[in-house]
Structures are given as C-alpha cells and as structure tokens.
Write a structure and sequence with these properties.
By secondary structure, the protein is an all-alpha fold. Helix 2 crosses helix 4 and helix 3 packs across helix 4. It is flat. Helices cover about 70% and strands about 0% of the residues.
C-alpha cells in the first residue's frame, strides 16, 4: 500500500506482536493445566525409535566428518605437530571449521582420533 501511514503500520505490527504473545501465553497455560491433570504431552508412540534414528544419524554424520578431516590431520601430524593442541591450532590456522562449525580445540582433535581408533 503506497498510501499506508507508517504510524498505522507500526500500530498494526504492535497489535500483531501482542496477539502472538497472548496466544503463546494461553497455549502454555493450557498445556500446564493438561499436564497437571496427568496427561502425557507429546507423541510417545515412537519416542524410542525416533531417538535411535537421531543417534544413528548423528553417528553417521560424525563418522563422515572424521573420515574427511583425518587425512588433513595426518598431514599436519607428519609436519611435526604431535599434541592435540598443536594439531587444533594448525587446523584453525588453515581455516578448517570444527564439526559444529566453530574452532578446533584439543579435545575435539582427541575425539576425532578416538572415533578413528574405535572404527
């Protein structure tokens, strides 16, 4: 709307935000009441299966990441970096992100070696 008043748009946005907060508050209160009456919330029918699939997916992702980064770690180790801390510093210097996208730490490198030894 090219003729819309910015002040009125601001008022509409504030009302929408307030309504969202009220809906969230009512939902939380209703769920709390239902739980207080002893009802189990959530879908419990396949919880164990969903958890197992999640664990399997996380493990597969970790295995794939370790397989991709191990050649680089071996190369760094061949250049003389022998401690986990030195390897982590070398990976950070090369700009290689850690498994969760952050920086490498000694424990992260140790976990990669542990995963490789277990596999």
């Amino acid at each position: 709307m090219p003729y819309a008043d910015p002040f009125m748009l601001h008022i509409y946005a504030a009302l929408a935000e307030k309504e969202r907060a009220l809906i969230a508050e009512r939902t939380r209160a209703a769920l709390a009441q239902k739980e207080a009456r002893g009802a189990e919330l959530g879908n419990r029918t396949n919880l164990a299966e969903a958890q197992a699939k999640g664990v399997a997916t996380n493990q597969a992702t970790a295995e794939a990441f370790a397989a991709n980064v191990l050649p680089v770690i071996r190369q760094i180790k061949a250049t003389g970096a022998t401690t986990y801390r030195a390897i982590a510093a070398a990976l950070n210097a090369r700009g290689i992100p850690a498994p969760r996208g952050g920086e490498w730490h000694a424990t992260t490198v140790r976990n990669i070696f542990t995963r490789q030894a277990a596999g």
